[in-house]
Amino acid sequence: xxxxxxxxxxxxxxxxxxxxxxxxxxxxxxxxxxxxxxxxxxxxxxxxxxxxxxxxxxxxxxxxxxxxxxxxxxxxxxxxxxxxxxxxxxxxxxxxxxxxxxxxxxxxx
Amino acid sequence: xxxxxxxxxxxxxxxxxxxxxxxxxxxxxxxxxxxxxxxxxxxxxxxxxxxxxxxxxxxxxxxxxxxxxxxxxxxxxxxxxxxxxxxxxxxxxxxxxxxxxxxxxxxxxxxxxxxxx
Lengths: 109, 117
What we know:
The complex is a heterodimer.
Chain A: E1 4-6, E2 9-13, E3 18-23, E4 30-36, E5 43-49, E6 54-56, E7 61-65, E8 70-75, E9 84-93, E10 96-99, E11 103-108
Parallel strand pairs in A: 2-11
Antiparallel strand pairs in A: 1-3, 3-8, 4-5, 4-9, 5-6, 7-8, 9-10, 9-11
Chain B: E1 4-7, E2 10-13, E3 19-25, E4 31-37, E5 43-49, E6 56-57, E7 64-68, E8 74-78, E9 87-94, E10 107-108, E11 112-116
Parallel strand pairs in B: 2-11
Antiparallel strand pairs in B: 1-3, 3-8, 4-5, 4-9, 5-6, 7-8, 9-10, 9-11
């Protein structure tokens, strides 16, 4: 089953904050977050591992609740460049990735 | 470094035709993946190759075959294309084998837009 993302879409003004949630029905080894701009390939944002380790290289934070099988992505002080579709990808076994349906984010000037 | 490259970028097929999508990476990654993305939907894993010489099915393998030609190249073949296979196909790669979970970052290619008439 695909992880469920919420909200499905969100519109922000520059400088506003947003939270995107990802919920899975299966036990998770890790959660990945990607951003995809229209007509382009997905780009890695962050990996969250069991035990709390995070690996990422952008100014975006996230949390991973292993017990609840949920992750949240926090976008603070949004910029125009944050616009795109955000996907969570959940790892339920080695090399077993299932991506969510995505959250469309639009940041307005 | 080119990263992950895919050919062709666009392709139109008639039902029943066959074709091979090519993917290559120059990052010395062990693992490679093929995904499809349908309009308004997320990525679905078709096949993956954990390491050179191995391949395994993902979520939606029916109608596809793959070949891990060497460490750099991973091809996807449609033997008899169907309209349901109209999609954007992404190839991806990741670095190391991780045994205990916590998979590595995936790097995606630019995609192949396939239309089957």
